[in-house]
Write a structure and sequence with these properties.
Blueprint (H helix, E strand, L loop, with lengths): L7 E4 L8 E5 L4 E2 L5 E5 L9 E4 L2 E4 L3 E4 L7 H13 L11 H6 L8
Parallel strand pairs: 1-6
Antiparallel strand pairs: 1-2, 3-6, 4-5, 4-7
Length: 111
């Protein structure tokens, strides 16, 4: 299942490479023509990082998938969200759990 030569990116708690740690043979999410934000919820160095995902991909348990409910500039807002979250002190011992995520106040750019 974890074949680095697979067709589908596996997204995990990583701070670079769009969150991709390897490619595998199965996917767990199909974004079709839409764009989604993956949010790394834990891990030293990756917690708070957000990336845009399209197409078919898989995620580990250390990642949330966020679907925008309004039309916004995803490229800009993903960078803004990452800057805000990575400066809030999250990491391996303080993950972004559901309760913390629901109580976060972050700012997004709207046109």
């Amino acid at each position: 299942n974890y074949n680095s030569l697979g067709n589908y990116p596996l997204i995990a708690a990583k701070n670079n490479n769009n969150g991709i740690i390897k490619h595998i043979n199965d996917f767990s999410f199909d974004a079709n023509d839409e764009k989604y934000i993956t949010l790394c919820k834990q891990g030293d160095g990756g917690s708070g990082y957000c990336f845009i995902q399209t197409g078919k991909f898989a995620v580990t348990s250390s990642v949330y998938i966020l679907k925008p409910t309004k039309t916004v500039n995803l490229e800009l807002n993903t960078k803004i969200l990452t800057l805000q979250l990575t400066n809030m002190g999250f990491g391996f011992s303080k993950s972004i759990n559901r309760e913390r995520l629901n109580n976060l106040r972050v700012y997004m750019y709207t046109e």
